[in-house]
Design brief:
With 243 residues, the protein is α/β, with parallel strands linked by helices. The protein is built from 7 helices and 10 strands. Helix content is 34%, strand content 23%.
Protein backbone atom coordinates (compact mmCIF):
# COMPACT_ATOMS: atom_id res chain seq x y z
CA UNK A 1 0.00 0.00 0.00
CA UNK A 2 1.29 3.43 -0.95
CA UNK A 3 1.81 5.98 1.78
CA UNK A 4 -1.11 8.40 2.08
CA UNK A 5 0.24 11.93 2.27
CA UNK A 6 -1.45 14.30 4.69
CA UNK A 7 -0.96 18.07 4.46
CA UNK A 8 0.02 19.84 7.67
CA UNK A 9 -0.51 23.61 7.61
CA UNK A 10 2.42 25.07 9.53
CA UNK A 11 1.62 28.71 8.88
CA UNK A 12 -0.92 30.72 6.90
CA UNK A 13 -0.98 34.48 6.37
CA UNK A 14 -4.33 36.23 6.38
CA UNK A 15 -4.13 37.07 2.67
CA UNK A 16 -1.53 34.76 1.19
CA UNK A 17 0.07 35.40 -2.18
CA UNK A 18 1.77 32.01 -2.53
CA UNK A 19 1.43 28.42 -1.42
CA UNK A 20 4.55 26.54 -0.34
CA UNK A 21 4.50 22.76 -0.35
CA UNK A 22 7.46 21.35 1.54
CA UNK A 23 8.23 17.65 1.29
CA UNK A 24 9.70 16.61 4.61
CA UNK A 25 10.87 13.56 6.54
CA UNK A 26 9.81 12.65 10.06
CA UNK A 27 13.27 13.53 11.41
CA UNK A 28 12.76 17.11 10.17
CA UNK A 29 9.81 17.83 12.46
CA UNK A 30 12.07 19.51 14.99
CA UNK A 31 13.56 21.87 12.39
CA UNK A 32 10.31 23.25 10.98
CA UNK A 33 9.82 25.82 13.79
CA UNK A 34 13.28 27.43 13.43
CA UNK A 35 12.89 27.22 9.66
CA UNK A 36 9.65 29.22 9.83
CA UNK A 37 11.30 31.78 12.10
CA UNK A 38 14.11 32.24 9.57
CA UNK A 39 11.64 32.39 6.70
CA UNK A 40 9.67 35.19 8.31
CA UNK A 41 12.86 37.24 8.58
CA UNK A 42 13.82 36.62 4.95
CA UNK A 43 10.56 37.60 3.25
CA UNK A 44 7.58 39.86 3.75
CA UNK A 45 5.50 38.11 1.09
CA UNK A 46 2.39 36.58 2.74
CA UNK A 47 2.31 32.82 2.25
CA UNK A 48 0.92 29.47 3.31
CA UNK A 49 3.48 26.88 4.39
CA UNK A 50 2.22 23.32 4.13
CA UNK A 51 4.51 20.54 5.33
CA UNK A 52 3.97 17.12 3.77
CA UNK A 53 5.64 14.35 5.72
CA UNK A 54 7.10 11.43 3.82
CA UNK A 55 7.88 8.41 5.99
CA UNK A 56 9.43 6.16 3.33
CA UNK A 57 11.96 8.72 2.14
CA UNK A 58 14.03 6.59 -0.27
CA UNK A 59 10.97 5.08 -1.89
CA UNK A 60 8.52 7.98 -2.12
CA UNK A 61 10.91 10.66 -3.36
CA UNK A 62 13.17 8.80 -5.78
CA UNK A 63 12.24 9.20 -9.47
CA UNK A 64 13.36 5.70 -10.46
CA UNK A 65 14.92 2.63 -8.92
CA UNK A 66 18.60 2.82 -8.01
CA UNK A 67 21.07 1.03 -5.75
CA UNK A 68 21.65 2.48 -2.27
CA UNK A 69 24.07 5.37 -1.90
CA UNK A 70 24.70 4.31 1.70
CA UNK A 71 23.29 1.58 3.89
CA UNK A 72 21.37 -1.30 2.34
CA UNK A 73 18.06 0.29 1.31
CA UNK A 74 17.55 0.67 -2.43
CA UNK A 75 15.80 3.64 -3.94
CA UNK A 76 12.39 2.26 -4.92
CA UNK A 77 11.50 4.91 -7.51
CA UNK A 78 7.95 5.77 -6.39
CA UNK A 79 8.08 9.52 -6.94
CA UNK A 80 5.35 9.25 -9.57
CA UNK A 81 2.92 7.96 -6.93
CA UNK A 82 3.85 10.83 -4.61
CA UNK A 83 3.35 13.40 -7.36
CA UNK A 84 -0.02 11.88 -8.25
CA UNK A 85 -1.20 12.40 -4.68
CA UNK A 86 -0.05 16.02 -4.74
CA UNK A 87 -1.88 16.68 -8.01
CA UNK A 88 -5.06 14.73 -7.36
CA UNK A 89 -5.59 15.11 -3.63
CA UNK A 90 -3.49 17.63 -1.75
CA UNK A 91 -3.37 20.56 -4.18
CA UNK A 92 -7.12 20.54 -4.88
CA UNK A 93 -7.85 20.52 -1.13
CA UNK A 94 -5.50 23.42 -0.48
CA UNK A 95 -6.76 25.40 -3.47
CA UNK A 96 -10.32 24.95 -2.24
CA UNK A 97 -9.27 26.49 1.07
CA UNK A 98 -6.87 29.23 -0.05
CA UNK A 99 -7.70 29.83 -3.70
CA UNK A 100 -5.54 29.38 -6.77
CA UNK A 101 -2.14 30.68 -5.71
CA UNK A 102 1.32 30.34 -7.26
CA UNK A 103 2.80 27.12 -5.86
CA UNK A 104 6.39 26.71 -4.69
CA UNK A 105 7.51 23.10 -4.27
CA UNK A 106 10.34 22.93 -1.75
CA UNK A 107 12.61 20.30 -0.32
CA UNK A 108 16.01 19.54 1.17
CA UNK A 109 18.29 16.71 0.04
CA UNK A 110 16.29 13.95 -1.70
CA UNK A 111 13.16 16.08 -1.31
CA UNK A 112 14.97 18.76 -3.30
CA UNK A 113 15.62 16.24 -6.08
CA UNK A 114 11.94 15.27 -5.99
CA UNK A 115 11.00 18.93 -6.45
CA UNK A 116 13.29 19.18 -9.47
CA UNK A 117 11.92 15.98 -10.98
CA UNK A 118 8.30 17.02 -10.34
CA UNK A 119 8.94 20.25 -12.24
CA UNK A 120 9.88 18.20 -15.32
CA UNK A 121 6.54 16.38 -15.15
CA UNK A 122 4.04 19.23 -14.65
CA UNK A 123 3.72 23.00 -14.74
CA UNK A 124 1.70 23.11 -11.51
CA UNK A 125 4.73 24.35 -9.58
CA UNK A 126 5.80 27.79 -10.75
CA UNK A 127 8.75 27.96 -8.34
CA UNK A 128 11.14 25.27 -7.18
CA UNK A 129 13.17 25.59 -3.96
CA UNK A 130 15.80 22.84 -4.03
CA UNK A 131 18.19 23.19 -1.10
CA UNK A 132 21.20 20.87 -1.25
CA UNK A 133 19.29 18.58 -3.64
CA UNK A 134 20.52 15.05 -4.33
CA UNK A 135 21.50 15.82 -7.91
CA UNK A 136 24.17 13.11 -7.62
CA UNK A 137 21.34 10.58 -7.96
CA UNK A 138 22.25 7.96 -10.60
CA UNK A 139 21.11 9.09 -14.04
CA UNK A 140 19.68 12.40 -12.89
CA UNK A 141 21.79 14.84 -14.87
CA UNK A 142 21.37 12.85 -18.08
CA UNK A 143 17.61 12.91 -17.46
CA UNK A 144 17.61 16.64 -16.68
CA UNK A 145 19.44 17.38 -19.92
CA UNK A 146 16.58 15.81 -21.85
CA UNK A 147 13.64 16.96 -19.72
CA UNK A 148 13.46 20.74 -19.14
CA UNK A 149 11.90 22.24 -16.05
CA UNK A 150 8.39 23.62 -16.48
CA UNK A 151 8.80 26.07 -13.58
CA UNK A 152 9.35 29.81 -13.88
CA UNK A 153 11.92 30.18 -11.11
CA UNK A 154 14.51 27.86 -9.57
CA UNK A 155 16.61 28.15 -6.43
CA UNK A 156 19.56 25.81 -5.96
CA UNK A 157 22.08 25.61 -3.14
CA UNK A 158 24.91 23.39 -1.99
CA UNK A 159 27.34 23.23 0.90
CA UNK A 160 30.89 23.98 -0.16
CA UNK A 161 32.09 20.74 1.47
CA UNK A 162 29.34 18.41 0.29
CA UNK A 163 31.55 16.88 -2.40
CA UNK A 164 34.10 15.77 0.19
CA UNK A 165 32.49 12.40 0.73
CA UNK A 166 33.77 8.87 1.07
CA UNK A 167 30.95 7.75 -1.19
CA UNK A 168 31.99 8.01 -4.87
CA UNK A 169 28.64 9.08 -6.30
CA UNK A 170 28.25 11.83 -3.69
CA UNK A 171 31.62 13.28 -4.67
CA UNK A 172 30.03 14.26 -8.00
CA UNK A 173 27.44 16.54 -6.38
CA UNK A 174 29.37 19.77 -7.00
CA UNK A 175 29.73 19.11 -10.72
CA UNK A 176 26.09 18.04 -10.88
CA UNK A 177 24.71 21.15 -9.18
CA UNK A 178 26.75 23.39 -11.46
CA UNK A 179 25.40 21.53 -14.48
CA UNK A 180 21.84 21.79 -13.12
CA UNK A 181 22.29 25.55 -12.79
CA UNK A 182 23.63 25.76 -16.35
CA UNK A 183 20.60 23.89 -17.63
CA UNK A 184 18.28 26.35 -15.92
CA UNK A 185 20.12 29.20 -17.62
CA UNK A 186 19.87 27.48 -20.98
CA UNK A 187 16.14 27.04 -20.44
CA UNK A 188 15.72 30.76 -19.80
CA UNK A 189 14.10 30.51 -16.38
CA UNK A 190 14.94 32.78 -13.47
CA UNK A 191 17.45 30.94 -11.32
CA UNK A 192 20.16 31.20 -8.70
CA UNK A 193 22.78 28.90 -7.17
CA UNK A 194 23.99 29.74 -3.69
CA UNK A 195 26.95 28.17 -1.93
CA UNK A 196 26.63 27.52 1.80
CA UNK A 197 29.49 26.95 4.18
CA UNK A 198 29.86 23.39 5.42
CA UNK A 199 28.65 19.90 4.72
CA UNK A 200 25.22 18.57 3.81
CA UNK A 201 24.12 18.58 7.44
CA UNK A 202 24.92 22.18 8.43
CA UNK A 203 21.90 24.44 9.13
CA UNK A 204 19.28 22.67 6.98
CA UNK A 205 16.51 24.80 8.52
CA UNK A 206 18.18 28.06 7.52
CA UNK A 207 19.16 26.76 4.09
CA UNK A 208 15.62 25.65 3.37
CA UNK A 209 14.22 28.97 4.58
CA UNK A 210 16.55 30.87 2.26
CA UNK A 211 15.49 28.68 -0.64
CA UNK A 212 11.79 29.28 -0.04
CA UNK A 213 12.27 32.99 0.65
CA UNK A 214 14.09 33.53 -2.65
CA UNK A 215 11.26 31.84 -4.50
CA UNK A 216 8.67 33.96 -2.70
CA UNK A 217 10.60 37.17 -3.28
CA UNK A 218 11.34 36.41 -6.93
CA UNK A 219 9.08 38.34 -9.24
CA UNK A 220 7.75 40.68 -6.55
CA UNK A 221 8.26 44.42 -6.60
CA UNK A 222 9.03 44.63 -2.90
CA UNK A 223 12.30 46.25 -1.87
CA UNK A 224 12.29 45.48 1.84
CA UNK A 225 15.39 44.51 3.79
CA UNK A 226 13.89 41.07 4.26
CA UNK A 227 14.75 40.15 0.70
CA UNK A 228 18.40 40.02 1.79
CA UNK A 229 19.53 41.53 -1.50
CA UNK A 230 19.20 38.24 -3.32
CA UNK A 231 20.84 38.25 -6.71
CA UNK A 232 18.09 38.31 -9.33
CA UNK A 233 20.36 37.44 -12.27
CA UNK A 234 20.97 33.77 -11.58
CA UNK A 235 24.69 34.18 -10.95
CA UNK A 236 26.67 32.02 -8.55
CA UNK A 237 27.60 33.69 -5.29
CA UNK A 238 28.29 32.66 -1.69
CA UNK A 239 25.70 32.32 1.03
CA UNK A 240 27.30 32.47 4.48
CA UNK A 241 25.61 30.93 7.49
CA UNK A 242 25.04 33.08 10.54
CA UNK A 243 24.36 31.81 14.01
Amino acid sequence: MEQQLIPDIIYASANPQALVLQMSADHERETIAPELKHLQTFTSVPFVLCRIEVSDWNASLSPWQAPPAFGKENFAGKAACTLAQLKENILPRLQAQYGTLPVCLAGYSLAGLFALWAATQTNLFSRIAAASPSVWFPGWIAFAEQHPLQAQALYLSLGDREDRSRIPMLREVKNCIIRQNELAGNQGISHILEWNEGTHFNHPDRRTARAIAWCLNEGTEQTTDKQNNYDQTGTIHPCHSAD
